[in-house]
Design goal:
Blueprint (H helix, E strand, L loop, with lengths): L1 H27 L7 H4 L15 E2 L6 E2 L1 H7 L5 E6 L15 E8 L2 E8 L9 E2 L7 H7 L7 E4 L26 H8 L9 E3 L9 E3 L15 E4 H10 L20 E3 L11 E4 L10 E6 L4 E6 L2 E2 L11 E2 L1 E7 L1 E2 L9 E2 L3 E11 L2 E9 L7 E4 L6 E3 L3 E7 L4 E2 L1
């Protein structure tokens, strides 16, 4: 009897010690409070960037070195959910994304879906704050080849351990917005073996951790504190068998729809130099403007009336070679938890505006199925050719006004 008590006590002691250590590491591993502002951006290139940029990134057409291509050809894209609450700005890592989608997540507050592949190789990239997923982001992510690495922290779901049958009451979470159900149907959620990496469920340190002092010596709210290290994400993906090809020898890009690209060239007399729009009325903190810079042939982003920057890499203002306005049918507050729904899968032509090279192209978009990547066309039905570089896709409720 005494031996049994001793064993139980020893087990509990070890458990409490390990739990305490885990909490300390999870919260403070990035350093002491106050260090983040001083250290942000001090990254060292890991490849020789003086080499010629002759390799085209398949995601957005940007040009990279052969050394970088050699690395990305051993990997598959990381797709991350990044929040945009005013208290979460500036975010970390957005400037390294090939494509960024923005849509309202809840209450007029927008959220980002970042596609990371080629631009996150040369330097260590930290992405933050990682947040929960919505089903329309799942639907967009599903267009990026077979089983992309999908990174998020929780999501809309109907699980409820304390409810009868372990499921929330009818009407609490509408079936059409259940992101976990969509991930299950895709086969992405498979515990610690799937390509879905959920910081609230099946992955932890060192892939994701809590850092409430990312932006300052004052602690951020707990929900704004999840940070991911993309190197560690790739290490975990490798352990799970998700490299450029999976354990069955299937390449991630089989069936992946490549967009068309060309070298961007500023026109002599640009006609669309300032773009501005809002997502919801009364939510000016999330209004967006893009200002064209002819010297770089790119658009600079402002959010809520302020320059929108990346907290890392010497805090550059976020830029895009192409800004796409993708108008989508919106359903608002469709369940008791107030979830949104955007119809981003449609074989019927939706309206779109494509800004590049200082001009605007009026066009359409279509995404025929969940596994198809959306495609954009001009008024004549010809596929849009994007200027090489970062592409931002702004998903606005159909009928919203855009000034330019």
């Amino acid at each position: 009897m005494n031996k049994k008590i001793t064993l139980i006590a020893s087990f509990l002691g070890l458990y409490l010690i390990s739990a305490g250590i885990s909490l300390l590491v999870f919260t403070y591993v990035l350093g002491k409070p106050g260090q983040k502002g001083e250290e942000a951006g001090k990254k060292r290139a890991r490849v020789d960037l003086s080499q010629p940029k002759i390799e085209e990134c398949p995601i957005n057409g940007a040009m990279f070195t052969s050394e970088e291509k050699k690395i990305w050809e051993e990997r598959r894209p990381i797709i991350a959910i990044i929040e945009n609450h005013t208290d979460s700005r500036p975010q970390s890592g957005l400037s390294k994304a090939e494509v960024v989608y923005e849509a309202v997540a809840e209450g007029g507050i927008t959220r980002f879906l970042g596609i990371f592949y080629c631009g996150s190789i040369a330097e260590e990239v930290k992405v933050a704050p990682v947040r929960s997923v919505r089903i329309y982001f799942v639907n967009l992510a599903a267009g990026y080849g077979g089983n992309p690495i999908f990174l998020h922290q929780g999501g809309a779901n109907s699980f409820c351990p304390s409810c009868p049958g372990g499921v929330k009451p009818r009407g609490q979470v509408a079936r059409e917005v259940d992101a976990y159900a969509a991930l299950d149907k895709l086969g992405w959620r498979n515990g610690q073996h799937g390509n879905d990496m959920d910081g609230g469920f099946n992955v932890g340190f060192p892939v994701v951790l809590r850092d409430q002092y990312r932006l300052s010596s004052e602690p951020a709210a707990w929900e704004h504190s999840v940070v991911a290290n993309l190197d560690e994400v790739y290490n975990e993906a490798k352990k799970r068998g998700f490299n450029f090809e999976d354990e069955d020898g299937v390449l991630w890009n089989e069936g992946f729809r490549l967009w068309k690209f060309e070298d961007g060239e500023a026109v002599s007399s640009p006609t669309a130099t300032e773009i501005s729009f809002g997502f919801w009325d009364g939510k000016s903190d999330y209004d967006v403007s893009w200002k064209y810079d002819s010297s770089t042939n790119s658009y600079k982003r402002s959010n809520g009336g302020k320059a929108h920057t990346d907290w890392e890499f010497e805090k550059p203002q976020l830029t895009a070679a192409d800004v796409v306005i993708m108008f989508a049918k919106e359903k608002s507050m469709i369940d008791a938890e107030g979830h949104q729904y955007y119809e981003v899968i449609s074989s019927k032509a939706g309206s779109a505006l494509i800004f590049k090279n200082g001009e605007v192209v009026e066009g359409t978009w279509e995404k025929k199925s969940q596994l198809d990547r959306e495609v954009f066309y001009d008024k004549n039905g010809d596929e849009i050719v994007f200027a090489r570089g970062p592409i931002w896709v702004e998903i606005l409720p159909a009928g919203n006004e855009v000034s330019y």
